[in-house]
Design goal:
Blueprint lengths: L4 H5 L2 E2 L2 E2 L26 H38 L4 H45 L1
Antiparallel strand pairs: 1-2
């Protein structure tokens, strides 16, 4: 199936969502395979949904950053105020490492989704120029 029919194929069978009908996404996660979108069949609702998805992607990045800042602040505080305990120092360093990893994961995820959304937008812009 082409176009946005992938969304229509995600019907509930016996009360359960059919995840196989949603398409395969790079990285092995479930979601829409953006290569299935037919730019000629997109209507206003689809363009608005694409914009909402971009905004959701930005909110998700901010949530990753908020979490990372909290982890980094907690780790830095432990190292600053409880330096005498070896266990607390290990925990502080661990929190700093995890905070840095959360930052990297958030940025990677944001860029991956943004790149896929940009491809869809560019393909729709190309089709609008042809029409």
């Amino acid at each position: 199936m082409s176009g946005l029919q992938g969304h229509q194929r995600s019907i509930r069978l016996n009360g359960r969502l059919d995840l196989d009908s949603l398409g395969d996404v790079e990285g092995g996660t479930h979601g829409m395979d953006y290569r299935e979108i037919d730019p000629q069949r997109m209507i206003l609702r689809d363009h608005l949904a694409l914009d909402r998805t971009e905004l959701a992607n930005e909110r998700t990045l901010l949530a990753y950053m908020r979490t990372a800042i909290a982890l980094l602040a907690a780790g830095g505080s432990l190292l600053k105020f409880f330096w005498n305990s070896l266990l607390i120092r290990i925990l502080g360093v661990l929190l700093l490492v995890v905070g840095t990893a959360v930052t990297a994961l958030g940025i990677w995820r944001f860029r991956t989704i943004s790149r896929r959304l940009r491809e869809v937008k560019e393909s729709t812009a190309d089709q609008d120029d042809v029409s």
